[in-house]
Amino acid sequence: MMRHLISAADLTRDDAVLILDTAEEMARVADRPIKKLPALRGRTVCNLFFEDSTRTRISFEAAEKRLSADVINFAAKGSSVSKGESLKDTAQTLEAMGVDAVVIRHGASGAPYRLATSGWIDAPVINAGDGTHQHPTQALLDAFTMRRRLIGPDAGLGQGLDGKRITLVGDVLHSRVARSNVDLLHTLGAEVTLVAPPTLIPVGVENWPCEVSYDLDSTLPKSDAVMMLRVQRERMKAAFFPTEREYSRRYGLDGDRMARMPGHAVVMHPGPMVRGMEITAEVADSERCTVVEQVANGVSIRMAVLYLLLGGNEPAVTHPAPATTPATKRSAPASASRIEEK
């Protein structure tokens, strides 16, 4: 593993599979009466959030506490940032307090990279979302959910998503989730298709490792997973489509469209969902929708990332992956008991 997690594009296939396999072991902790591991006891992790968040912030906090870390929650509102304090001064304050890792969400693309490479703080930096750039742990939890649903928790150990066909639908232009998923899913061997109005497709998308379509109905029958993206009005400075009703008619997922998907295919959404626009209540509440699973899997993935960056250098899996898989060419895997001893 690298020292920081800034972008999904920085992960090799081995790195990504290692995180997914470690998360499988972490997921078993959720089934225990006491959902705690001592792996990060004595370590202090700061959640540095300059943007509003519900799922990501709470998920990281839950992951840190389940690993027995001491947690500092920092919100820009009500802090010295609202008085004009710079990111550098905030980082140096945290460094003086002796934090061991920083989880940062920031509205400016590149802020986590700046924090990780500036020398202002000597601790691993985990990007929890920066502007319209990257959200690597979201992509990891999405891939983890797809692997569990499409392959199986145990059958998927040591594997990527080779040959799986994933469709991302909606506001690609403003979506850091879309960028991270395209990078990671390509690394894991999946075939990715973006579906959106032409106005919501980024300039330069032809250089991305994916295909682009403007016709949702034609892509649904050949998709193993369909991820609906939220229309991010807070980042829009112009009209990108005529009306909400027109957008929903062409790019929204309803029951009729879901019926055109293969029987095994799943519907995903990074949240928060705008019901009635990009997804109907019928689809959001169906058994094929994995939104709640994604939230639960987010805790496991973030536990795995924190453990690998701060606690251990080996995969926390109890069953070694098949020797034929390239991603398994590493030291012997650690068991749950090894984690308990950390």
Number of strands: 9
In DSSP terms (H or I, runs of 4 or more residues), the helix count works out at 12
Query: What does the radius of gyration come to?
Result: 20 Å
The CATH class name of the largest domain reads: Alpha Beta
**How many structurally independent domains?**
2
The name CATH uses for the topology of the largest domain is Rossmann fold
Proper CATH architecture of the largest domain: 3-Layer(aba) Sandwich
Element order: H for helix, E for strand:
HEHEHEHEHEHEEHEHHEHHH
Structure description:
With 342 residues, the protein is α/β, with parallel strands linked by helices. The protein has 12 helices and 9 strands. The chain has helices at residues 13-29, 55-66, 87-97, 111-117, 136-150, 176-187, 216-219, 244-251, 255-259, 281-284, 291-311, 336-341, and strands at 44-49, 70-75, 101-106, 125-130, 165-169, 191-195, 211-213, 225-228, 266-268. It is globular and about 55 Å long. 47% of the residues are buried. Residues 318-337 have low confidence and may be disordered.
What's this, in brief?
The protein has twelve helices and nine strands.
